[in-house]
Structures are given as C-alpha cells and as structure tokens.
Design brief:
Elements (H helix, E strand, L loop, with lengths): L2 E7 L6 E7 L2 E5 L1 E3 L12 H7 L4 E4 H6 L3 H4 L5 H5 L5 E4 L2 H7 L3 E3 L4 E4 L6 E4 L1 H11 L3 E3 L11 H23 L5 E6 L5 H14 L3 E4 L8 H14 L6 E3 L5 H9 L4 E3 L2 H7 L2 E4 L2 E4 L19 H5 L2 H9 L3 H27 L3 H11 L5
Parallel strand pairs: 4-14, 5-6, 6-10, 10-11, 11-12, 12-13, 13-14
Antiparallel strand pairs: 1-2, 2-3, 7-8, 8-9, 15-16
Helix pairs in contact: 1-14, 6-7, 7-8, 8-9, 11-14, 13-14, 14-15
C-alpha cells in the first residue's frame, strides 16, 4: 500500500504539501524523518517520538544487518515489532555506510565486499541482498543500493558510479517485484556534475519507482553547491512522486530545499548536536554549555511547547550537560527533535494557507545565528 497525493502548492516557489499513504499510516509532507539507525532514535522512547510529532523514522540496513543481525528479525514481524514502533519506517540501503564506515571494501559489479566496522568480519552486500534485508525488516519505504562517491570525485569516477547505480537499481527492482511489498525508491547519483545528474534521473525514471531520492550530497561539498545540485536534480524528477533529499540538513537547508520542491528529509544533526550541547530555536542556535546560561531561568525557546521547554530552564540543562548527566542527552534531544518536526508542521501549514513566502521571510528575520 503506497500512494502520494499533493494537497497544496506554493504559487511563487516549488514548495508543495502532500500526503504519503503507507502500510503503517499516512505521512504529511514536507516531512523530516528522525534517524533511528539501529532501531532507536538515540535516547528517546517511541512514545517520546510520538509526543514530539514524529510520523516516520529511518533505520539502516547496514547497521541492522551487522547488529543484531537478520536471524534476530526472523523471530519478529519486522523492525516495527522489534522496536515497538507502529508508524512508518524508511530504511536506507546501506550503501553510504559501506562507503563511510567499512574498514576495507571492494566494489565490483556484483556488489560491495566489506569488513565490518564492528569486528572486522567479512560480508557481501549486493543489490539483491540489500532489498531482501529491507523486506525482512518490513520497511514501508525501501531504498535501492547505490554507489556512493566523494564530492571531490572527477568526471570518470562520477560517471562510472552513476552507471553502476543504475544497473544496481534495475536489479533492486527485480528483487523487490517478487513480493511487490510496500514502496521502493531509486537514488540519483552523478557527483557534482549536472549533466550526470540529469542522466541518472532519467535512467531511474525509465526504470520506474514509487519515489526518487537525491543522493551523494552533504558529503563535504560547499553548501551553495549542495543547494544548486539538489535544486537541479529535483527539477528533473517527476512531480507526481515524492522527492527525498538524503542526509541533510540544517533548518535553513530544509526551508531552502522545500522551496525547490523537496518532500522528505533525514539528518543526524538534531540528535547529534543535542548530545554535543547545541540547541535549536526560532531565534537561532545556542550552546547550552555557555557560561551565560548558568543562572538563566528561561527555557531554551519561549515559544516551544516541547516537554523540555515546558519543564526545565536553560540553567538546569546547562548543569546537566556540564555534569555529563544522562538526562542531558535525553532532554536536549527531545527539544531538538520537537523543533525540527514542529518546523516541518509550520511549513506545511504555511504552504496550505498560501503563506509560504511570508513564513520564509519571518523565519530568517527571527534567527539571530545561522547554522
């Protein structure tokens, strides 16, 4: 069961709001997906995620395959049952993690041979195996295996990677079609070259997928290039399908990419930065370890309705963080996830009310520090 319906569009930008229907419920877009790599969004319970407004979370094939392993999931009805999450789940294919984490890896036409970053054991991830694992996890949205490259890769390497990604996408779809279960998204590659991005986009459209993702960005390239390549790629993808920009980004990144037509996002930024003491607010960001908050009786964000802001002061949060108390990571994460999800809700409302431009101007006017 999968469907995407656009319910509102901005008259002056490419921003749109829609509804994704999956086997585990509906998702209003634009949507931010908290990253739950190992079957958990770090430090939060499923109930806390729901209270923060999470509609869908992201899991990762590479990590879940290595730990706890497929044999564990055979004893459950998929990842939903295992982690007690009854809302939609998207799983990444594992391609990026093999690229970034594996101790040793060798890519060939069959797939990727690699050594685990955990214990050095040898494994082989093929397009077929990636899909089989994600079907076992019962992901609502399954991603094709792609070949990831560095943003500094030249034209030859970028061309080879996109062509292999296309061939792997064909194999992924053939494996997925055996069950025809849930939704399958293709991932556009092509490095920092627009002509290759156009070739990759059209090749995936010709194969045909439920949705399309823009991959290979937020890997170290300047932000201006990320926005430029993402915007170009999004414009080449069919408007009738959901468009997903992978692995990005800051609040301003999300707003700019929504303006360019993106519907779906994921990023570790709100959770990782929470553990490092950086908190997001409508006025910008604050580092809770700053000494100026030692006696501050105000919440992180006076306009925020999250559990953290309704109950605790900046002074208390600073104390917890400086003392390295575990509660610091939980409370900071609740706030940052709530902020991101609430931002997406406000963007949805602005699009539906025909006020997206005004919302965007107000967003930047209120922010004191860009990130």
């Amino acid at each position: 069961m999968f469907n995407f319906k656009i319910v509102a569009e901005s008259k002056t930008t490419k921003a749109r709001s829609g509804i994704l229907t999956t086997a585990h419920g509906q998702i209003k877009t634009p949507v931010f997906m908290p990253v739950g790599t190992l079957g958990t969004v770090k430090s939060l319970t499923p109930e806390e995620l729901v209270e923060c407004g999470a509609q869908i979370v992201l899991g990762n094939t590479y990590h879940l395959y290595l730990r706890p392993g497929c044999e564990v999931f055979h004893h459950f009805s998929g990842l939903h049952d295992f982690m007690n999450w009854d809302r939609p789940i998207l799983t990444d294919s594992g391609g990026f993690q093999v690229y970034s984490l594996a101790k040793l890896r060798k890519i060939n036409e069959d797939g990727v041979a690699f050594q685990s970053h955990i214990d050095g054991s040898s494994h082989m991830l093929t397009p077929e195996r990636s899909i089989e694992i994600q079907l076992l996890l019962d992901s609502d949205i399954i991603m094709c295996l792609d070949e990831c490259i560095a943003h500094t890769a030249g034209r030859k390497a970028s061309k080879n990677a996109l062509e292999r990604t296309t061939r792997w996408a064909e194999r992924c779809k053939k494996t997925w079609e055996k069950e025809g279960k849930n939704a399958l998204f293709g991932i556009v590659q092509g490095g920092m070259y627009k002509d290759f991005r156009e070739v990759s986009s059209q090749a995936l459209i010709d194969i045909g997928f439920n949705g399309y993702a823009v991959g290979g960005l937020s890997v170290g390239e300047p932000k201006s290039i990320m926005i430029d390549i993402a915007g170009f790629t999004l414009s080449r993808l069919p408007d009738s399908n959901p468009k997903y920009v992978m692995g990005t980004g800051t609040p301003s990144d999300l707003l700019e990419l929504v303006s360019l037509g993106a519907d779906m996002f994921d990023c570790v930024l709100p959770t990782r930065n929470a553990r490092n003491g950086q908190m997001f607010s409508r006025d910008g960001t604050i580092n809770i370890s700053n000494s100026r908050f030692k006696y501050d009786t105000q919440p992180v964000d006076a306009d925020c309705q999250c559990y953290t802001c309704k109950n605790f002061s900046r002074a208390y949060l600073r104390h917890l963080y400086m003392a390295k108390e575990l509660l610091a990571y939980r409370l900071n994460t609740i706030h940052n996830i709530f902020y991101y999800l609430n931002l997406m809700t406000r963007i949805q409302d602005a699009i539906c009310n025909g006020e997206f431009n005004e919302f965007k101007k107000d967003f930047y006017r209120k922010r004191k520090m860009g990130v």
